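Journal club side-thread
Mid-discussion, someone asked how the predicted structure for our own chain would compare to the paper's figures. Pasting it here so we can look after the session.
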Amino acid sequence: MNYKIFPLYIAILFAFSSCKTKEKTTGLSYLQNVEQIATDVSISNSKSTIQVGDQLVIFVTSKNMDVVKPFNQGYYSSQNSATPGNASNSSNSEKLYEVDENGDIDFPLLGKINTTQISLEDLKSDLTFQISSYVKNPTVSVRLANFKVTLLGEVAKPGQYILSEKNPSILNALGIAGDLTMYGKRNDVLIVRNINGQITKSRINLIDENFVNSPYFNLKQGDVIYVSPTETKERAARQDPNTAVYIAVAGTIVGLAGIFITIFKN
C-alpha cells in the first residue's frame, strides 16, 4: 500500500527542496551584495561629470590677489549692483555659476566655458590653464554648491537627487525620495561616504533620537543612502521566481499519483 503513495511523497519533497535551496543561495548572495553595490555607486559619484543645473563655486587666488580680482565674481559684484551672466550671489567670497541648458557657464573675462562631459577636476585644470595666460601660477578651486546624493533600497523613489539646501541632512534626502516604504528598516539605514577616495560606512537608527548627533546626519557630497528591507521583504526577495512552476509541477504529479492509486485500487 505504501508504494502506491510513494509518488505523493516525491512530489512534496520536490516542491519543498526546490524552494529551500533557492532561498539559501539567493539570500546569501543578496546580503553580500548590498554594501558592495552602495560602495560602487559612491565611487562612481565621486567621478561623475558636471550636469546641467549644477551650481559651481569657483574662486581664483594667487600671491597677488589684486591681479586675480577680474576673475572673481566678487570683484564685479562689488563694482556693480548686478552680477553679470548667469551667476548669483551666495556670499562675499563665494559666487555661484549655474550650468545652463547648453552646459555652459559664463566666466569673467574668459566668457563661455563649456562643461559638458567633464568633471570638476577637468574644469579646474582648464580654468587654471586659461587664466595662466594672464596670471602667473594661479590657484583655482572648483566645487559643487548643490549636493548630489543617491538613495537606494526601501525608499518610495530610489535614484540620484540634487539637494539645494546648504547643509542637507539625511531627513532632507529621505523626504525628497518620498520617505521609506512600509518595508524599510527604520533602525538600519546604511550611509556610504567617499572622502578623497577613502570609503567610510555607517549605519543609522532613525528610531533612536540620538541619531541627529551622528557625523552622518548631515550629508556630504556624493553620499549613498541604502535603506535595508525588513525580514518580510527579504523573504519575498529570496523567493525563487520559479516557485509557481514547481507548485504546478508538484500538483500535476500529485494528480497523476491519485489517478494511479485509483487504478491500482480497482
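Post-session note: The chain is about 40% helix and 25% strand.
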